[in-house]
Amino acid sequence: MPLLHHLFFITIYCGLALIAVLFGPSYIPDLQTGGAMLLGLWIFLAGVVLHEIITRRANDEETTAKLETLHHNQAVLRDRISWTRREIKGMAEAFEAAGQSSKLSEEQNIINDALSEVNLLKTLMPRLTDPYLGLFDDEESSQFKEPERPEVVGQKRQATKSDFLDDFRNERSLRARQKTVATNATKEEVSVLSDLSETEVLSIVRRSLRDDRIDMFLQPVVALPQRKRKFYECFSRLRTTNGQVIEPGQYVSIATRAGLITAIDNMLLFRCVQIIRKILRSGEDVSFFVNLSSHTLKDQDFFDDFVDFVRGNIEIAPHLIIEVGQDEFLDLKASELLSLERLIGHGCRLSLDRMKTLDMDLKALAAGRIRFLKIEGWLFSQDRNKTKKFLHDVRSLPIELVVEKIETEDALVQVLDQDVAYGQGYLFGEPRPAKP
User: Alpha-carbon distance 281 to 265, whole Å?
Assistant: First the structure.
């Protein structure tokens, strides 16, 4: 009921009550002043009750009208939802039929994969655009802006990126090309920059991040004694504007101090995801070791986003092995260990490298979901009894051992004497660039 109607009713019964009080004794001789006041009160109360009855009835009618309108709208919406469901079902059947008869479903999967990778890359953008990192400062010296020399151009034409999947599919083809690789090695060494100052290296790091010149190199990890390629380890190398590269040993410490190592790790991880996408589409069975620094493990925002990404793309997890240095792993906080545990819970595996001793609690490492240990062969020569006990304990646990930096046949013989499962080093293949 409108407010004016309420005021109208109130005015009526209040006015009648007031008239009864003021003029009642004059028109009714037997009515005294007290009786007139009681009569006025009775008229006022009767007016309030009547006002309440009329208001409630009006509200009931209004509520009933609203309910009828809602029921009508509900019926209309139910019909529209049913129609929409039929339309969606028909479209889904049409898309499914089209996907079975063409490559539409495959293309849609590729699009979905690309979208998920873009969403992952979005988490890296705030870091790359952080003004405090100076990625967009024009501070690279003129030394790196010189025109490309003819010999450098020739090197770039010769240094074509090879497809590591071809090598994985055909081991013989790799061995047949070893001579060619050996002859090109000297040419590639010429393109590696050295003797750079810290300022020059930092400038190259910033420009490589800014211009997306972070290349991923892959080195095989082979099963022994067959030397069959089983895994690959991912390395990052930064490329200058003229195609020359600087290796991790030159820039890791400098990038760490400048707060850029996490961005490099994230880009390497993103490249690895792209490679895993490729092997999934090709049906190959190969996994990748990706070494992450402690700074990346402590970047809770990015790590949470990456865990969500893996959860939404669960097929990637079995092919991804997160590698952490032993010292860095022991220094991780409970929250950072929990992040790793969440990632492992989705199917990823964990590896420790840069092991400095054979004295370690292997059962505790196995309980901590460690599945790979990477050590160097020289550790076996320290104490034979200790080596024998270590190898015996490893074989009783779900931990695989990888011996690194095997570069000669003599070194391989010493490793084979220890019955180690996997080996890695230049003897089996040097790190080579891979394209996603």
Answer: 25
Strands 214-223 and 432-433: antiparallel
CA distance 349 to 371: 6
Cβ-based neighbours of 361, under 8 Å, separated by 6 or more: none
Task: With H, G, I as helix, E, B as strand and everything else as coil, classify residue 233.
Answer: strand
pLDDT 10s digits, 254-294: 888 888 888 888 888 888 888 888 888 888 888 999 988 87
Q: Which two tokens stand for residue 115?
A: 């979208």
Mean pLDDT for the stretch of residues 125-144: 48
Q: Which residues pair with 220 in a beta bridge?
A: 232
pTM, 2 dp: 0.62
Would you say 272 and 289 are in contact if contact means Cβ atoms under 8 Å apart? no
CA distance 116 to 83: 32
**Which amino acid is it at 6?**
H
Tell me the pairing of strands 422-424 and 400-404.
Answer: parallel
Domain ranges of the chain: 3-83, 114-433
Residue 265, C-beta contacts closer than 8 angstroms, at least 6 positions apart:
236, 292, 293, 295, 296
d(CA 39, CA 20): 6
pLDDT per residue as tens digits for the range 158-206: 444 445 555 555 554 545 455 444 444 434 443 777 778 888 888 888 8
Ramachandran sector of residue 357 (left: φ over 0; alpha: ψ -120 to 50; beta: rest): beta
Who's near 391: CB < 8 A, 6+ residues apart? 401, 418, 419, 420
Q: Select from 431, 125, 106 the least CA-distant residue to 270.
A: 125
- Fold (CATH) for 114-433: TIM Barrel (3.20.20)
